[in-house]
Every structure is written in C-alpha cells, then in structure tokens.
Amino acid sequence: MTPFRTVIRNLHILTGLFISPFILIYSFGVLTFNNEGLLNRLSPVKRLPEIKTKLDTIPYGETDLAVAKAVCKKLDIIGEVDFISRWKGHLSFPVNKPGLRTIININTINDSVSVSREQLGSLRAMSYLHQMPGPHNENIRGNSTFLKFWRVMSNAVGYFLLFLATSGVLIWLLLKSERKMGVFVLILGSVTLTCLILLILNS
User: Fold this and answer.
1) Which of 105, 113, 118, 128 could be a cystine partner for 101, CB 3.0 to 4.6 Å?
2) DSSP SS3 for 2
3) What percentage of the chain reaches a pLDDT higher than 70?
C-alpha cells in the first residue's frame, strides 16, 4: 500500500468515525419526521404545569427579539427564541432546547407572564437537531449560543461527508480487485437516483 493511499484511507476512516454520531442524530431525525404517529404513541409529549408570574420591567421599546431575550434572562430560561408573535396587548414566543419546548406569553399591559413547558423526549430532541438550523425565520435564527455552535458543526459535517464520499471513490479506484463491483454499485445508485427524480418530477 502506497503512502498516499494509506493517508487517504486513514483520513477516510477517522472522518467516518468522527461524524458517525452526527449521522445517527440525522437518521433518527428522519425516522421521527416520517413516523410521527408512532412516536406520539410510544413517547407522548409531557406537558408540565403552567407558571404565572409578573416582571418588574420589560424593555418594550427595543426589537421583539431583544424583548424576548430580556424576558428569558429575567426568567432564567435558556434556549433558542423562535417565531415571535405580537398582537394587541400580548407578545408570545417559544424557546426551544433539544427535548424541551417552552412557550412564553407576555401581557404587555400589566407585565404579567405565563410560561408553559412541554417535555418532548430524546427522539424529538434529535429531530429538532436534524432540522436546526434551517431557513425558516432566518432573520432571528441562531440567537442562542448552542445553535450557533450547532450551525458550525452541521456545516462541518456536510464538508466531512463530501470528503468521505470523495475519498471513498478515490480508495475504490486504487483497489483493482473492487473496481468491477464498484462500477456495478455506482451504476445501480445512479439509476435509482434518476428514477426517484423522475418520480418526483412526474408526481
């Protein structure tokens, strides 16, 4: 085995081992998306008792995100603020953490706050990680430290997958004994992908 092939092979293996936990999370996320009914039966959402309180001051003059983050800080709630809704006399927004969803509803007239929480479970936590960060509500996406870090790691895993695929093809080309089987599998994968694309376009 040449030194070049040894380096590529080792990097291929190490990269695969590093990203394998992330791939498991993404895979479980897909299963959760596709089998929501079964998930609800096996692991129902647990709703915790509602908490009602009143805050001394809320900075209503700032942006909605700034208001939401200030309220979270006062309530000692950590997570990603998402989909802020404002209507007459009220400001409402969810705060998400993997496995826990908190909904904060603020009465802007008397500064009273109600907090409701839902324990979603570990499978829904992986589903949340699968879809975040995403393009929805992009103007405020990534306002928590955790999600900023997760965005970087998600991008890194995407690059590592590209390297894994490229290095896998390169290793296959260098292994003469596997070339015939490799060509067959490559053609089979390409045909399957083409059929799926045609089905999508004609559905």
Assistant:
1) 118
2) coil
3) 97
Task: Give the burial class of 43: count Cβ atoms within 10 A of its Cβ; 0-12 exposed, 13-18 middle, 19 or more buried.
Answer: middle
Q: Phi then psi for 3, rounded to 5 degrees?
A: -55, -40
pLDDT at 142: 84
Domain of residue 62 covers 46-119
Together in a domain, 14 and 106: no
Verify that 77 and 32 share a domain, yes or no.
no
Residue 165 host element (H or E): helix 145-174
| pLDDT tens sequence across 48-94 | 999 999 888 777 777 888 889 989 988 999 999 988 898 888 899 99
C-alpha 75/C-alpha 104 separation (Å) is 10
Would the CA dihedral through 116, 121, 122, 124 be positive or negative?
A: negative
